[in-house]
Structures are given as C-alpha cells and as structure tokens.
Amino acid sequence: MKPTTYLPTIAALTMVPTIGFAQEVDTTPTNAEIGFIFTTFMFLVTGVLVFWMAAGFTMLEAGLVRSKNVTMQLTKNMALFSLAAIAYYLVGYNLMYPGDGWAITNILGAFSPTALEAVGLEGETPDLTYASVGSDFFFQLMFCAATASIVSGALAERIKLWPFLVFVVVLTAFIYPIQASWKWGGGFLDQMGFQDFAGSTVVHSVGGWAALVGALILGPRIGKYKDGRTIPMLGSNLPLATLGTFILWMGWFGFNGGSQLYMDTAANVADISRILSNTNAAAAGGAVAALILTQLLYKKPDLTMILNGALAGLVAITAEPLTPSLGAATLIGAVGGVIVVFAVPFLDKLKIDDVVGAIPVHLFAGIWGTLAVAFNTQSSFENAAGEEITRSVMGQMFIQLESIAIVGAFVVVASAILWLLLKNTVGIRVSEEAEAMGLDAAELGMEAYPEFTPG
Amino acid sequence: MKLIKAILKPFKLEEVREALTEIGVRGMTVSEVKGFGAQSGHTEIYRGAEYTVNFVPKVMLELVVAADVVDQVVETIMTTAKTDKIGDGKIFVLDVEQIVRVRTGETNEDAI
C-alpha cells in the first residue's frame, strides 16, 4: 500500500493526531476500533483453521477408500473446495446473509456476488461493533465448503467426477446458503427460536442429508452386499485416515470457536475458551465411547470406528459448545460416539453404502447434537430482533425437532431432484468395468501409489 | 544345481538369512507373499461386518545352490524357521537347468 492512500485515513481515525515526522505517525487504534480489530483477526485465524478441515476430510477419505480410488478422492476434494469457494462468492454469501435485502422476506436471500470493503476502508465507515466483511466472508465460506466435503466421502468409489461436481456447485451456491439463511441469516427459523451455535444442523446434517439421498439414488458399490451379508472393503491407509481425523479435530476449534462471532470483550474471549475446551472434551468423549464399545461388541477395538466416534462427538457438540460444562460436553460427545458404532452396521443392513461413515457422523450425530441443545440452552435469551424469549426444555426441544425436520425436508427434496436429474441425463455412476478397475486407472489414468514405474 | 523355495513366517526371515550366511550361502531373493495351508484363515471384523482373512502374510525365500549342499541348506532353513506352531511354512526343492551371471556371462556352478 502506498503511504499516500492511508495517511488521510490514519489522521482521521487517530484520537490525538500527533504528526511530527511522516514516519512517526501515531497508528495506535482508537478504543472504538479495538473490538473490530480483534474480532476480525479472530475470524481470519479461525477461518484458516476451518479451511484446514478440507485437508482433514481429504486425508480421512483417502485413507478409508481402497487404494485403486485414492487419486480420484483427492481430485474430488481439491475440486469441490475450489468450486465451493467460487460458488459461495458468486451467489452463496449474499443468499445466506442478505441483511435487509431478502428476495422473499426471511425465506430467500439476495442474489448478488460478494463485494468486499474498499482497500484501506477508503470512504467507508465499517460497523465497528462487528468485523470486516472480508473476514466474515472468508470464515463463512469455509463452512459452506465443509458441507460439500461431507458428501464426497459417502459417495466415494463409484460416482462420476463431473456430475458430482455439478451437485457440489448447486449445493454450495444454493442449497446450503438458502437453508443457512433461515437460521444464521436471521430468517424464519431464527425468528422461531431455533438454536444451532456452529451448525450441527445447518452444516453437518445438511451434508449428511445430501449424502444420504445421494447414496440411496447412486446405490452401493458392486459386491458390497452379497447374499444378505456385508462384505467389508478395507480402507487403504489408516495412518492417513487418522491424520485426517486429527486435522478435523484441530480445525473444529476454529469451527466452533469462531462461531462465537465476537472477540471484543473479556466475556467473549472467556466464552471462546469455554468453547474450545468443550469441543475438545466432546471429541474425546466420542472417541473413548467408540473405543470401549467396539472392544465390548467385537472383542477388538476398531480404529475406523474410533475415528468416526471422535468426529461424531465433534458434530454433536457443534450445536451448543458454549453453555455445557466439561462433563456435559464429554457426555454429549460420547453419545455421538455410541450412535456411530450402532449406525454404521445399521446402514449396511439397509444396504446404504456410506464409504467413510459420513451419514452416521454428520447426520445422526448432528440430529442428536441439535436436540441436546434443549438441555443446555438458557431458558431466557434474546432473539435476532432483540426480543426477550423464555422457553422450557420441552418447548425448545420441539422447536429443535421442527427445525431439523424443515431443514431435512428441504435438503432431501432439493438433493433428490438434483441427483435424479443428473442420473437421468448424464448418469451419475461409472461403468462396472471402471468400478472394478478402480477410478484412478479408469477415469484418471493416475495411481496414488504407483508400482513398476519406468525409471 | 537346485532352486530352493522356502515359504516362512516373516519374523523368522532375518534369523534364517543369518544362519544361511554362516554356512556359506552367498545370495538369495525374498518376496512378501500371502497364502494358506494347514494354518488356514481366521475371521476379523471391520466396521461391524465380519470377514475371513484367507491369505496369511508369509515371506518366500528363493536361492540356488550346488547339488552337494542342498541337504545342509534345507536342514538349516528348517531348524532355524521352526517354531513348532502351525503355519511355519514349507520348503520346495527344484532342479535348475541353467544359470547365467548377467555381468560376466559366467554360467552354471560358476555363476552361483
């Protein structure tokens, strides 16, 4: 930045402009700016953490698919994140946060691309009680991309690349932002009193519903279910799957911590500390529950279930990571871990082939977490309109259930229409030969772990 | 000249190599293989679904020796690789028609 562009701004914003030499301009922020600076900084740091979850999802999926499909899984994850970033910029952000510009009040947001503040805030007065638009966009974009990552794991090893990417674009440009506006954009679910702190429903169950509908329409991998039995298809790289889980766990500190949305007071910083501690406790609870349960049920612990258990714990605490005690957070996570251990074989019984356990982790544990809010939420709080609302546990439970059903119905119908449209036009499934050979060789001509290479 | 193929438990490989080196064997080739014999397989559970592991991991040692030392080599492999538990493996002895050393063109016994 050239000095000439910021000097007038600095001079205008400094409380006591003590300009001696040009190099010694007092750039100390005013008290009024400090909250804005810290909150913006918090969004940027936590946004980077949530971004890193894309790497977590990618490594988890690369580890849990068979080696013949690893390159394809990596390709899908690179492509889906990048497409989500573009879709969210072009359509998603303003559809999700229309402010006063709703196309249909509290139901359908605004249709316009994202615009950031001017360089150096030239000619602009930012809302100093919040954060920069750029940091908010950056942070929210990462949540949108996470939703798409959830879908890719469930449908791995048999879906065609391009139809999947078309689904991702529609999911991240329209389906996710529209339903997210109902809660986080201040829409009708928010007005109704629906509580979802960082997105057990808004993010995770949405990815889960889209994955469930996709898995049903796509069908299981060839040979997965034979004569009423489930044939395991072993993951190719458990160290990668474990690394991916730890990356997701780390990213979640940003996911839930940043969702406090403010870091401008001691109270908010203390709350963020509670959130990070509770988030960690829930992941630990989920992992330990799955560890003990698989030992008891199967006589040997199942690492892949422990990984899913930790993630289910994280999804479960996401709807309310602030108010529970450490003990309650651990228990909420542990229930998530238990859900996963029973839900994975249950889906197999229904012949719903979910390669990485995305549906148990993100949908089932997401529903659990959203309902658990009713036990922890304050009985009295302010809604977005600033009205004081008081509610009983059962009253809140009902609102949570209703919201889960509304979001679920919308995502299921929208995804089903899209998946069926794709299936009946371009087709969504690779040929039997390609599936048997592996998508890496058949669709990409590039192996993740090549052997007998020239040279 | 005889080709000895020995299928052994992987953790015994290093011991067998040492014992063979001590009695003067100068080269061998080893591969990781899987198979089953009397040991058969066992069942495991992955994500709640049971499956049978039919092929057990083994190593296959291949070495060519002069006919007069075959018995000594086979005996050494057997005593070293033995654990008295099921799955210790098998040793096969086959005739070799011809050997050529790539670098020098030496043949047969000179090339061992």
What does it look like?
The complex is a heterodimer of chains A (455) and B (112). Chain A has helices spanning 3-13, 31-64, 70-96, 133-154, 161-183, 188-192, 200-218, 238-258, 266-298, 303-317, 326-349, 358-376, 393-425, 432-437, 439-444; strands at residues 225-226, 229-230, 380-382, 388-390. Chain A is globular. Chain A is mainly α and 455 residues long. Chain A has one domain: Ammonium transporter AmtB like domains (Ammonium transporter fold, Orthogonal Bundle), CATH 1.10.3430.10. In chain A, the strands form two sheets. Chain A has a two-stranded antiparallel sheet. Chain A has a two-stranded antiparallel ribbon with strand order 3-4. In chain A, 50% of the residues are buried. The longest helix of chain A has 34 residues, at 31-64. In chain A, a hairpin with a 5-residue loop joins β3 and β4. Chain A has 15 helices and four strands. With 112 residues, chain B is an alpha+beta fold. In chain B, β3 and β4 form a beta hairpin. Chain B has helices at residues 13-22, 70-81; strands spanning 2-8, 29-35, 42-46, 49-53, 56-65, 89-95. Chain B is elongated and about 60 Å long. In chain B, the strands form two sheets. In chain B, strands 2-5-1-6 form a four-stranded antiparallel β-sheet, with helices on one face. In chain B, strands 3-4 form a two-stranded antiparallel sheet. The mean pLDDT of chain B is 94. In chain B, 20% of the residues lie in helices and 37% in strands. Chain B is built from two helices and six strands, in the order βαββββαβ. Chain B has a single domain (2-111), classed as Alpha-Beta Plaits, CATH 3.30.70.120. Classes of the chains: A mainly alpha (455), B alpha+beta (112). The interface between A and B is medium-sized, with 17 and 7 residues.
